[in-house]
Amino acid sequence: MFCDFVRRRNTPAKSAIGMPLAFLGLSAIGCSPTLVVQPDVAKVEKSDFVIEGRLRYEGNREYLPRTIAETASGESALDIEYSYDVSYGARNSAREIAALFNPLTILGFPIDEDSVLVVGELKIIGKNENTRTYSAKSGVRSARGLFAGGTLSELRRSGLIAVRNNLEAQLARDREALMLLAKNH
Q1: What tens digit of pLDDT does each residue of 151-183 get?
Q2: CATH for 31-183, among 3.30.70, 1.20.58, 1.10.10, 3.30.160?
Q3: 178 half-sphere exposure, CB direction, 13 A CA radius
Q4: Mutual angle of helices 152-173 and 175-183, in 10-degree steps
């Protein structure tokens, strides 16, 4: 009686549908991006603190920490410099060629991995060359398959936003010292 139950339960039609779905489900779990940010600082949701100065930054304003602003008049005793560097991990072409002959690739198993490293540095320079420097770095890694995986542009953007948020948290944590630096000038 138990054997009859097992035989009825594992029909070829159920196995033919169930196994690929199980493989796709398991492979999708491993394809979500991994994000690591250093230093480990608690994220600040909304900060009313903004430090103003002459801003030296060329790039998309979306990636600029929202706790700094350029003075409207352009006159300020503080200079603010922000820069970042983005580097991409190398792709393994041997793995990509081997994936062509792997039947599990069709089921969504990862072919290779993309990675992006973002390093940001923020300098606030006062009179007498009194400088406060803040830096953050983020690493984003994502498995790449035929049907899943983010683009390098998406990974770069998420890394830049993570660096921005980390720098904002560092500035919020150092609020008192920055207010004193701004008042002394």
Answers
A1: 888 999 999 999 999 999 999 888 888 887 777
A2: 3.30.160
A3: 22
A4: 70
Distance of alpha carbon 88 from alpha carbon 4, whole angstroms: 56
Gap between the Cα atoms of 119 and 113, Å rounded? 20
Q: What is the pLDDT of residue 165?
A: 93
Task: For CA atoms 27, 32, 33, 39, give the dihedral sign.
Answer: negative
HEC letters along 34-73? EEEEECCCCCCCCCCCCEEEEEECCCCHHHCCCCEEECCC
- Per domain, the residue ranges of the chain are 31-183
